[in-house]
Amino acid sequence: MLETYFDKPFDPGRRLQHQIQERLIEAILAGIWPLHEPLPATRSLAEAINVSRNTVSLVYERLAEDGYLTPVNRRGYFINERTIREQLNIRQDAKLKEGLPSEATPFDLQGRLKYSYSGQRSINKPADWRSYDFPFIYGQILPDKISVARWRDCVRLAGTAQHAPSWISDLVDDDDPMLVDQIIRRILPQRGFRADPSSILLTVGAQNGIYLTGRLFCHEGMRVDVEDPGYVDARNIFESLGASLTGHRVDANGMRVSDDLEGASLVYVTPGHQSPTSVTMSMERRLALIAASEKHDFVILEDNYEHELNFVGAQRPALKCFDRSGRVVHIGSLSKPLFPGLRAGFIAASPEIIRELRALRRLMYRHPPAQEQRALALFLAEGHYDAHIRRQRKVLSQKWKTVFRSLERHLPMCDVTQTTGGSAIWLELPDNVDARELQAKAAEQSILIEPGDVHYLNGKAPGNCIRLGFGAVGPEQIAEGFERLGQLVRQLDRLNKRSA
Asked: Which domain holds residue 40?
């Protein structure tokens, strides 16, 4: 019976030892092996499943350490009866539900909800984006093998006796002081300002920082001003908290700053790379926005999620650099330029604001995973983050140049917004080409693009804008992908002109 659990071939992409252990645990919990008989000898099982004897021996030892097996001198390994008994008790308890009434009273979820989060308009990104030949999707990257290896080393180092005491205990509502220190010394100076530990809070990504700040400052009926087009999830956060939104148009210099900001309680901006157009806010507008915040007494929520990925022209200091009154809440991401799936970020604000945010965060999840914080601190301290950013800038700069050359050659009929870096562009198609229709046609040719209408406030969206991300596309794919996309745009342009 035991051999049947090994009929399925092993996955060559996973460690053999782990797969054998998983299958043995499954067999043990299924009760297929007599408790009074030892498991097959290591040599016998190894020959039966065609692996080395040492591998089976290591698996047996691990299972004994975890309480599934009991070693008996000169007899072998026996299944631990207590483990099986606990499992049987769980199954027996599960049978008690048979005594409940045959029909349950229906639960009216919608009647209980004050706000439906699933009803929000959001950016939909296909889970199978890797299956496309040309995935021009924003927010995804090609793996940097060097950084992956360095991260693996730092995770391993964080788990050693030297560093484990920093994360095995509950930090309550505190953060890893080593990571906070690294952010202060290595990250903030590049953004043009400094801070002390009382002004820093770690978050689970930049978006978590937006939610925490929104939760702290927003209330029913409060006015929040946003960029239009702007970041969809930030807009959804503010609306879900009861805020009323006022949009401000975006041009080549970022969000327009005027006296229309009077009456706002909070203004959300993405000055480094405006989301979704990727333009960078000019210095004149940055200073004007700071002056407006003091004049009209509003809080600025600065989402600087990829400051490090500017590679055209000089770096511009963050809005926080000019903050004289403590009205700027600066949000940064440590994972966006590194590994988007890592989910690590920070908030820099006045100590008074951080104190309130820390108390709010404690109610939600106390603190981000402490082991991950220590691993990231080591990654920064050993210079791997800076080296990664240098490689990313070089790779993205080459792609950026290829993108604009390819646009000029294959999509000259489209208007593109000039950027100073990043990993995406904002493109305006000919007036009679619908972005959603183009998206469907492009998908048929394994090209993934993102229509831009979802980014506009109140549904007042042009139907001919798209965002093209190039972080997950190889340099050699960009020209071919844009050539195919250009052919589709021309076809749709001609068809729609004939039918008009």
From this structure: 2-93
Cα angle 410-416-420, degrees, rounded to a multiple of 5: 115
Q: SS3 for 146?
A: helix
In tens, the pLDDT along 416-427 reads 999 988 999 999
Chain segment 220-244, per-residue pLDDT in tens: 999 999 999 999 999 999 999 999 9
Query: Is the same domain home to 63 and 133?
Result: no
Contact 140, 353 (CB under 8 A): no
Q: What are phi and psi of 89, to 5 degrees?
A: -65, -40
User: Does the reported pTM lie above 0.90?
Assistant: no
Two tokens, residue 237: 């956060």
* DSSP state letters, 97-145: GGGS-SSPPP--HHHH-SS-GGGS------TTGGGSSEE--TT-----H
Residue in this structure with the two tokens 């229906």, named with its chain if needed: 106
CB 276 within 8 A of CB 467: yes
Judgement on whether residues 291 and 218 belong to the same structural domain of the protein = yes
Q: Count how many domains the chain has.
A: 3
> DSSP letters of 217-272?
H--TT-EEEEEES--HHHHHHHHHTTPEEEEEEEETTEE--SGGGTT-SEEEE--S
